[in-house]
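Page 42, continued from yesterday. The earlier attempt failed because a stray header line got pasted into the input along with the sequence. Redoing it now with the clean sequence only.
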Amino acid sequence: MRYLASHPGAGTTAIAESLRLRLNTVSGLCSGLVREGLLRRETNPADGRAARFYLSDVSAVHREHKMERRSGRLSRALQRLDPEEQAAIAAAIPALEALVQVLDQPDATPNP
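This time it went through. Structure tokens are written below.
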């Protein structure tokens, strides 16, 4: 669901490849989440056999509230650090963003 929050409309193949999961696992999970009302399935207009998945309205609202709570908790924790620790965390943000970009790219080297 976290993946679909940032990649709305993704299909099972894209989800499976990005999360390095088996296609049948993702398909089963998505079907279950659709039945529970947490995801919305739409037919892909480019291929009527394929589906696109989106967070349901209920999931989107729940996620927004959860993110607000986490953001507030993180903000309060950062305020409790001394200025040098806050500066060190701020200085690390560009490197962490670069790491996220690398992690989002397909792995070019096969696992041994």
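Notes: The chain has five helices and two strands.
Reminder to self: strip header lines before submitting.
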